[in-house]
Amino acid sequence: MTTKMTPVAASPSPSAPKFKKGLARSMVFALLMFAVIPVLIMGIAGYARARKLLYEQVAQQIYNISHSYASDLNRSMTTKKIRLDRVSRRPLFIESAEKLSELAPSNASFIYYREQLFSEFDVVNRPDSKPLFENFMLVNTDGVVCAASQANWEGLSLANSEHYPEFITGAHSTGIYDVTPILPEQFAIFTIKPLSAENGKDIGLLIGLTESESAEAFLNKIIFFNPASSAYFIASNEAYVGIDAYTKELAVFEPSHEQKQIIASTMIYREEDERDTLALLEFSNYQETPVVAQVHWMPAVNSGIVLEIPQNVALGQLGSLAPFSILIFILTFGAMSVVLWIASNRVVKPLLDLAATTRHFSEGDWQRRSPIQRDDEIGLLAHSFNKMADELSSLYRSLEDQVNDRTEYIRAAAEVAQSIVSTFDVDELLRKTTRLIVERFDYYHAGIFMIDRAGKMAVLKTAYGPSADEMLEVEHRLAVGSPSIVGWVTANNQPRAASDVGEDPVHFKNKLLPQTRAEVCIPIAIGDLVLGALDVQSTQPEAFDQGSIAVLETLASQIATAIQNVNLFESSKVNLGELERLYRSSRQIYSKSIARCALHFCHLYSRR
Q: CATH number of the domain that 469 lies in?
């Protein structure tokens, strides 16, 4: 029989151990080891500061180099403009230029004035036997080369060149790439001086050329002390001209999009401001190499110059600083790791042991306990776990007993249900039900009351227990709605349980059942129609919990269904007999009707 589960009380410990609660101090000591974090912050800050200083130093060095050579080029071109202006002021030179612009090359005087022009030009162009301009040419007002140091240029026209409009803007110097037909696909610096006769007549242009060899030598001079660096011009027509890494000659190249965009934005600013700054430009050049660069605008040649150095070269000293800083950090981190490991192992290992004990306990080893080896919070935790394990073990055994009882309940209920549906005899059905309830569930008494035809009385139909025969002999009955549990249940069509019959106000004390301490009554009903009641009594108080009441309700419902099925079966047997008698009677009537009809036809036939 199932009994109500009661909580298992834990036995009090005779003497609770005392704990110093030193775990917090241990954890604080371990966390203090993280003082490496400030050291790391200081190292990072120092590294960043050193990088900044080195960066500024590199920027200053690149600026000094590029600015120095850019200034030299500006001074050189200024000197060349002054010399070209002197040439334009010499009377014989102006006379020769005027004649050459008017005479045809086939004229006999043309050669004379041509030689005189060259002679006057060399007087100023070779102050110390070294020419300032590699070549020069005289261009008339129609853009045609009248005379040139290179004879093959004479007669060529610059008027159709896209750069010619820039030539006629006045005295100036400009670096241009690809001036066709004079210097196709070549870079040169053109120093231009407009010429006028004494009477103010416009003669044309005197153009002195600083060609690619000088530009190449200038770029090589810039990168002489740092071969890893590179320098290049940005011509006034936005062509990028530098020294080819393979041919070692001056060549044009196509910059990367990032390179062109960054340099262009810087050049616009410096063309307007005409001042250089220390700021370094960072980009990937046309060879996809990350570089740092310095850009200078040179107004004397209307062009820019760029000096760039690969970042791994310019900032190479940072490469040695970074590994050293990382090494220091790794050593510090390793030392701190050892200290932290020792400290944390002292804290964590007992927790791991406790976790292992908990795992074994959860896997079914109910005897496993955690050893108490410390007097701090971990020892307190182990003690608490052992105490909890004792209580859980007791509770588990109690629950296991209750599960076994509940399983027996279900098995017995199934057997009762099987017995109920295996018979069509109502009396036998009720007797077997009460007997199985008492025997299987270990109850004191079980009885089934059925409502009479008038619906006023609940008559004991069958019972099983110590006084069942006496109660059946006296035809024990209780009125529906009477002050009894059976009367109340049949009147209200609801189950009612009395955990202690002495305290229940409607309990009917039966002298034939003196040992009753608890009683439950379940209505046997189909919908709102109450057929009877199942009354079960026990000698134990509080013997009926929710589970046992639910099982009895199921049995009562099955009893009601079985009674209805038996009644339907008996009713169908009666209806079948009546149908059989009706069939025989109708057959006899039909036979007599056929006989009378036959006699009537015979009589009519005989009269004919």
A: 3.30.450.40
In the numeric block, the tokens 């110059």 are attached to: 305
**What is the DSSP secondary-structure string of 418-445?**
HHHHT---HHHHHHHHHHHHHHHHT-SE
pLDDT above 70 covers what percent of the chain? 81
The mean pLDDT of 443-466, rounded to a whole number, is 92
Nearest to 556 by CA among 407, 412, 434, 415: 434
Q: What share of the chain is helix, strand, coil (3-state, %, to 5)?
A: 55, 20, 30
d(CA 498, CA 542): 8
Mind spelling out the 3-state secondary structure of 545-585? CHHHHHHHHHHHHHHHHHHHHHHHHHHHHHHHHHHHHHHHH
- For position 250, which CATH number holds? 3.30.450
Q: Say how far apart CA 263 and CA 437 lie, in whole Å.
A: 102
**Cα gap 532→450, rounded to integer Å:** 4
Q: Is residue 326 part of a domain?
A: no
Taking CA atoms, 3 is separated from 413, 427, 437, in Å, by 17, 31, 16
Output 347 or 242, whichever has higher pLDDT.
Answer: 242
How far is residue 342's CA from residue 33's CA, in Å, rounded to a whole number? 11
**223: containing domain:** 215-316
Q: 593 lies in a domain?
A: no
Q: Which residue has the higher pLDDT, 279 or 420?
A: 279
Q: Report the alpha-carbon distance of residue 281 to residue 266 in Å, rounded.
A: 9
547-570 confidence digits (pLDDT tens): 888 888 888 888 888 888 777 777
Let me know whether 445 and 565 are in one domain: yes
Among candidate residues 272, 287, 316, the one where a domain is terminated: 316
Q: Among the three residues 316, 338, 366, which one is the final residue of a domain in this structure?
A: 316
Contact 518, 541 (CB under 8 A): yes
Phi, psi of 309, deg, nearest 5: -135, 135
Residues 430 and 565 in one domain: yes
Separation of alpha carbons 106 and 110, rounded Å? 7
Residue in 462, 415, 457 with CA at minimum distance from that of residue 439: 415
User: Distance of alpha carbon 330 from its chain centroid, rounded?
Assistant: 31
- What SS3 state is found at 506? coil
Q: Are 30 and 347 in contact, with CB atoms under 8 Å apart?
A: yes
**Residue 381 to residues 67, 371, 425, 594, Cα–Cα distance (Å):** 75, 11, 66, 106
SS3 call for 231? strand
Domain count, the chain: 2
For residue range 148-176, what is the model confidence (pLDDT) as tens digits?
A: 999 999 999 999 999 999 998 888 899 99
Angle between helices 546-607 and 426-441 (to 10 degrees): 170
Alpha carbon distances (Å) from 315 to 63, 309, 324, 565:
15, 9, 15, 101
Instruction: Give domain status of residue 101, yes or no.
Output: no
Calculate the alpha carbon distances from 442 to 91, 527, 542 in Å. 147, 30, 14
This prediction has a pTM of 0.51
Are the C-beta atoms of 120 and 196 separated by less than 8 Å? no
529-538 and 445-451 beta bridge pairing:
antiparallel
Q: Is 296 domain-assigned?
A: yes
Q: Give the strand pairing for 457-464 and 477-479.
A: antiparallel
Give the span between the Cα atoms of 11 and 24, in whole angstroms.
31
Measured in residues, the chain has a length of 608
Q: Which residue, chain included where needed, has tokens 């231009």?
A: 192
